[in-house]
Amino acid sequence: MNRKLIAGNWKMNGLRADLQTVRDVCAAIKGEKTAPETLLCVPATLLVAASATADGSALRIGGQTCHSRQSGAFTGDVSAQMLQDAGASYVIAGHSERRTFHGETDEIVAAQAASAIASGLVPIICVGETPGERTSGETLQVIERQLTGSLAGLEAASAFVIAYEPLWAIGTGKVATPEQIAEVHDHVRGFLANRFGAAGNAARILYGGSLNPGNAAEILAISNVDGGLIGGASLKAADFLAIYTTACALEG
Ligand code: 13P
User: Is-catalytic flag, 165?
Assistant: First the structure.
């Protein structure tokens, strides 16, 4: 069983006043290796302050996207090297909101993941089907296509995380059923094991999409669910910590 990762994605939310949430999470989590790993992916503007706040605690801080290049004439963009320099140890790559609103393709996501790894960050590579793809029975093909493209060039020795986030479950309150989650996660595991061997079994696969304190116990207990990528419920320390506590109980 892989050590669980409980990761929050604040998306475009969070001002300096919200560093109190980071403080509250730091104060409550345990540092032991037997406890789940905990991560908050905050907006780029808060990275330096959030990293300083989390310094000395078990909380890791991450970015939400990065450019595929390390520097250059890319106005408004942030590189993996900059995120690392600001205190990040993880970065989300290819979140569906980036794929939808910024036209990020599997090829771009693969380049971002490579750049993240080159900068010493662990990429969390997101995949997920649209409602239409789910209805037409294409889910597993879509996931496989995204994995093939987004993981192109990745080496087995590199640390990376996959997040399965069905688009219809993100921010909707509609959660995938345990059967739907298990089917996709097992398929992702098969893909990773086939492609990377033992390293594919060690890579964590997170579920994301309306994960909350009420459904965390059921979802985090599913085999091949190695944690969660949590949007809305990561904005409040109490909700995020309730999910963390559920994961702690499952780690035994
Ligand atoms: P919600 O938890 O708000 O549905 O968001 C999920 C998500 O997109 C995390 O990356």
Answer: yes
